[in-house]
Amino acid sequence: QVQPVESGGGLVQPGGSLRLSCTASGRTFSSYGMGWFRQAPGKEREFLAIISASGARTRYADSVKGRFTISRDNAKNTMYLQMNNLKPEDTAIYYCASGGYSTNHFDYNYWGQGTQVTVSS
What we know:
Elements: E1 5-7, E2 10-12, E3 18-23, E4 34-39, E5 46-51, E6 58-60, E7 68-73, E8 78-83, E9 92-98, E10 110-111, E11 115-119
Parallel strand pairs: 2-11
Antiparallel strand pairs: 1-3, 3-8, 4-5, 4-9, 5-6, 7-8, 9-10, 9-11
């Protein structure tokens, strides 16, 4: 596997939307589950959403259920996180992880460098 790379973060007003992308090169992209996590200053890394290798299964943290949507396009080697109705408490560095279907960040070996999401007026 190759280390994934996130993009799409930025500054958005409360109630706004952002779409994060996570791209990983390599022919094995479609063989592994992936996930999105985030980490705010002074806090532990937090599970947000995971998606199975085929994309048929997903799971969300209660804090983002109904607002965030995880998806993937294996033909493009890309995973997405559509984030709607963003709140100030969503401010954090967002990371994508590859290599499993787990809500526990310790179960992943491959991480992106992170992308900053700031929700503020």
